[in-house]
Amino acid sequence: MRKGVFGACRALILAVVALLASGPALAEDGYDLWLRYRPLADSAQARYRPLATAIAAPQDDPSIRIAAAELHRGLSGLLRADVPASADAIAPGAILLGTSGDRRIAALGLPLSTLGREGYLIRSVRVDGKPATVIAANSGVGVLYGAFHLLRLVQTGDPIDRIDIRSVPKVELRLLNHWDNLDRSVERGYAGQSIWDWWKLPDITNPRYVDYARANASIGINGTVLNNVNAKADSLTAPYIAKAAKLADIFRPYGIRVYLSARWSAPIEIGGLKTADPLDPAVAAWWKAKADEIYAAIPDFGGFLVKANSEGQPGPQDYQRSHADGANMLAAAVKPHGGIVMWRAFVYAHENPDDRARQAYDEFKPLDGRFADNVIVQVKNGAIDFQPREPFHPLFGAMPKTPLMMEFQITKEYLGFATHLVYLGALFEETLASDTFAKGKGSTVARVIDGSLEGHARTGMAGVANIGVDRDWTGSQFDQANWYAFGRLAWDPEASARRIAADWAGMTFSTDPAFVAPVVDMMMRSREAVVDYMTPLGLHHLMATGHHYGPGPWVDDLERPDWNPVYYHRADAQGIGFDRTKTGSNAVAQYAPPVARQLGDIRTVPERDLLWFHHVRWDHRMASGRILWDELVTRYDRGVAEVAAMRARWATLAPYVDADRHADVMRFLAVQAREAQWWRDASIAYFATFARRPLPAGSPPPAHDLDYYKALRFPYAPGN
Amino acid sequence: MRKGVFGACRALILAVVALLASGPALAEDGYDLWLRYRPLADSAQARYRPLATAIAAPQDDPSIRIAAAELHRGLSGLLRADVPASADAIAPGAILLGTSGDRRIAALGLPLSTLGREGYLIRSVRVDGKPATVIAANSGVGVLYGAFHLLRLVQTGDPIDRIDIRSVPKVELRLLNHWDNLDRSVERGYAGQSIWDWWKLPDITNPRYVDYARANASIGINGTVLNNVNAKADSLTAPYIAKAAKLADIFRPYGIRVYLSARWSAPIEIGGLKTADPLDPAVAAWWKAKADEIYAAIPDFGGFLVKANSEGQPGPQDYQRSHADGANMLAAAVKPHGGIVMWRAFVYAHENPDDRARQAYDEFKPLDGRFADNVIVQVKNGAIDFQPREPFHPLFGAMPKTPLMMEFQITKEYLGFATHLVYLGALFEETLASDTFAKGKGSTVARVIDGSLEGHARTGMAGVANIGVDRDWTGSQFDQANWYAFGRLAWDPEASARRIAADWAGMTFSTDPAFVAPVVDMMMRSREAVVDYMTPLGLHHLMATGHHYGPGPWVDDLERPDWNPVYYHRADAQGIGFDRTKTGSNAVAQYAPPVARQLGDIRTVPERDLLWFHHVRWDHRMASGRILWDELVTRYDRGVAEVAAMRARWATLAPYVDADRHADVMRFLAVQAREAQWWRDASIAYFATFARRPLPAGSPPPAHDLDYYKALRFPYAPGN
């Protein structure tokens, strides 16, 4: 009879659920990111339910309380069941959380000692004779990371019945860099204004701050630089320190520290000093007092990020001091508190006539060994500036005595803003897998970054955030994948971008293999597509002035030579490309000899980097058998075709995605298709004026003449 | 037995509902505005259900389809029942929608002929012998307005069983003015950036555009000026016309037309002409062609709003032409398409040494009768600029041959931004109820605005929007009430602000009288509170430079005299206040004689306007028996005390409001309490340097000295 009652109830309950679920509040707008926790298929629910009957967690650690709450939220949603969290009872199928200090965890005799502060174990065990899953670590944050890992397994349909996972981050500092200004504009931000509402902080906070912390913790990000590297001194004044402290309080239990970008000239601008000379004792004393003030408000403040003597920013060179002098002075100020200084190597100077690609290396290489032990030098992935493709930065492997941290750009300044679907996991992976040959074969950039190559304990990876107030956080659904992939690769720089894409797609949309396989394929190919339709064969920095949206290869009127696209492509009647071999700028010599040899020889350089390193004749014969001009046009055409293929493919995937997000992505792909064509047409129209050759057979002429493309203006492009 | 089954089910269903309702997606973040549609109390659900069994609506009119969908959504939520919408069947308790052209509506013989295009009837009727509720109008939009009215009745618990409502808007143009820039910044915006994502339009639209239209339609707003009156010519270029057209397409079925602010010098800036002289035939031809281009994309384009020769904007006076010359030339361009020109009277000139309060009147009064019949002059509520309190603008009643439309500011530029709780319904009502005496007693501003005083058919009311991308739309929960009240008062300028507040509070939070009564009382008092703690007794424009946040009565260093607070308060050793009587600027003479006499005489002027019109001795005896200085301080204290009372009162209302929004409002009130004190302390510290008298007994000294307040800086205040 009871069964009959429940049978009868079932239909009613489903009707009620359907009614509630049809409400507007459950619309899929992307806000939930990869932490959607929508119900799994019935069969999967049945499989997991016995393995997730309850959550047993001590209540004294705030991070573990959050881990338990997240598991409760996630499992209750995924399994459509109430998975209660409590402190004590262990039922069969319970999930037990705890640290090495807990009695029940200690009794399990798990090998926790090598996990460090942030690593964790997830294991199927027996507790008091009952089957259970334990998530154990040496800190509450480690447990929280493990909880998110377990949730991911359930979200993506991985088995958890005989589980034995050990995970330890390979990189110490896994940071977002927000180029967010105090007026809430975001330099190179394409997802609306800054999520930091500085004006209302610290009194009024946004629930989004917590969801930001959840999302970051779920992928292991453990620090955030709140303000733009083009910094204002105001961020170091008392009111703004109080605002940052409020954010730090919110983020702390999620294992996220706050950092600030420091304006080099702050001692003058807000300190009333006459100088910012790093060797002036008054300047050092000012920074020390400022650090003390910050740490009084934020005891676990991470430290400073500094952009100095670059693109107009002040710095120690204004006083004839070196970058090391500057970094070390700041480092001394934060050292008593355990803080660090991240000193950016992205420098190039007005006065320097050298190839811009050479300058950071020339400036920093001689300083190797001169930095204090709490300084880490932050190097962009390539020597120019976040192009669709760049060879790895020659500094990686070239400063063995100095910890170098990676700076990737998650926000797509040069890759079609948030409008174009480009999965950056593929780009990040390509750089990390590049072999510097600094200590022979296998000296990958990943091994420079994780410290294993040169034995550095201090390691880091920073990503310039693509986050804003847009409801979907990142300006498009697919740009969420780039935030996600960054976090996962910062945890493990040798992880597979393809595997990460599969996790993301499964958590974000659907775990159906008929969906995941084509979407992952599309994501992995999307990066090559943008290279092809914007800057194929090693071309770079051809974007329009200032905002960097759309093609501007003809631009030659900017104040500084190395801000002009013509500086980079050097097209002429004979050919195209930047000669960086010894007949040219010889930037290639900055790489280790095996790399320099390969890149410096037109016969061995990979075609993808050809025009980065060589000025090549239009009739140069390529691997395809085509001459360079024909190959160039073919690549442009290939990029356009690839976007058309993405569009067609996504259209077939409607059955797997809610209507709102599916349509949303379709609209973005339509724009991308139009703009890929624009890039191709404008670039070909321009380069044809040098090549003076016909287009290869089957390749249509540009839709407009060159003047049409040159006349396009975008005065209100975002992020500029 | 079946009953037993359902009894058993009930508990389970409630558990499932509770589980789902506990999810994050149902969090009350304010996004739903006053259209929340959360379930009513059980007893109310039971009362309404028989009266809302189904929705019968023809499917051929897009506005009626929207009305039916909104009723379905609203009633299904409120009554926790599926209220189906269909085209045909009339069941007992159905809600029948339709226009005069529908057979079933015509058969009812309703008096629709006097409703105009936008009015509606809601009546309890019998259709085919069955009891029903009919919503009838002469247009689909009229039906939509009626549907929102019916929903409001259900939301607020009003009976609908014997209903007989007739509603016709008294004002033709009920418009929002967005001071939104093309880069998404919002001048005087305190709710995040512009909801118009110009960059992504027209290809990519935000679901928010639809919710914006729903919210506006629900309060009768029928037009929106998309861009800032400080306009850029780019908004008139083809790409931006296409973007505006996309918004127009979305808004059209909601009865909302789009308008654009026109940059006077656009013919030069984007037209390639040498002049923008309105009497130059080439200029007129350019605007005519531009209007044709806009109407080709937006057939129901509303017309232009123009800020000319004011605060640095170009205008016809640059060519020695009058405002009428300028307005009429533009009016001729849009006239063939049925468009209008709204010409702002907010002008004051660098060169003019006259009292700024006089200048708009002096400029426009002589032009009465000289404007084309599709021009309407838009006048701010007061002669200065959206102060916490201003006497009504002397132009109201002074230009009988010219239709004047009201410009209110919904965004709180001078009233504590979105942070301070100030219900502007009380301010709007005070202005509208003011008697101009233009045609004897009863010549209220409301009757100027609704056209009844001078027989104008063209009427309008504009509100400068307080809308942005913040999740709660307006930067705070209570600022939603100001958007709401503006719409309701635009529909009926003689409506009661108190009654509107009650509707809003009931729809937005709770209809419990134990909640509504104290909240409405608090809202109605909140406006007097801000007057008291910022600018009591007729003081005005004492806000800090530029951003207008916080006190700056001491500011005297701005380029233009009339930008300085000292220009307005004129405090000296003898007294304080601006003499606008005949011994001073004589601005008072711009009012009709009975008003001028009352305001011009220190014995009869209301104390609330005292220092607006008179320079008054510190020892002047006030109605309270106190001298002016003591009264001034007492008012400041009263304002601070009122905010403390609001805080205490809101704290007691927690049982009626979800925890998130209750806490949110508490945090805002805490800031307001601190800042009311700041205003009071800084103002008293400053004025005491002139009055040189002790504070009245019991009034504490300012917390800091004057220099402290003068030194405060807010370089990143929003909206500036």
From TrEMBL, chains A, B:
Catalysed conversion reaction: Hydrolysis of (1->2)-alpha-D-(4-O-methyl)glucuronosyl links in the main chain of hardwood xylans
Domain Alpha glucuronidase N-terminal: 33-150
InterPro entries named among the record's database cross-references: A-glucoronidase_C_sf, GH, Glyco_hydro_67_aGlcAse, Glyco_hydro_67_aGlcAse_N, Glyco_hydro_67_C, Glyco_hydro_67_cat, Hex-like_dom2
EC number(s) on file: 3.2.1.131
Domain Glycosyl hydrolase family 67 C-terminal, first and last residues per copy: 474-698
Glycosyl hydrolase family 67 catalytic domain span: 154-473
Pfam families: Glyco_hydro_67C, Glyco_hydro_67M, Glyco_hydro_67N
Claim: Hydrolase is one of the keywords in the record: yes
Keywords: Carbohydrate metabolism, Glycosidase, Hydrolase, Polysaccharide degradation, Signal, Xylan degradation
GO CC annotations on file: extracellular region
Enzyme class: hydrolase
One GO process term, biological-process aspect: glucuronoxylan catabolic process
Active site (UniProt): E311 (proton donor), D385 (proton acceptor), E413 (proton acceptor)
Signal sequence region: 1-27
Domain of life: Bacteria
Single GO MF annotation: alpha-glucuronidase activity
Subunit comment: Homodimer.
Recorded family membership: Belongs to the glycosyl hydrolase 67 family.
PANTHER family, per the entry: ALPHA-GLUCURONIDASE A (PTHR39207)
Record protein name field: Xylan alpha-1,2-glucuronidase
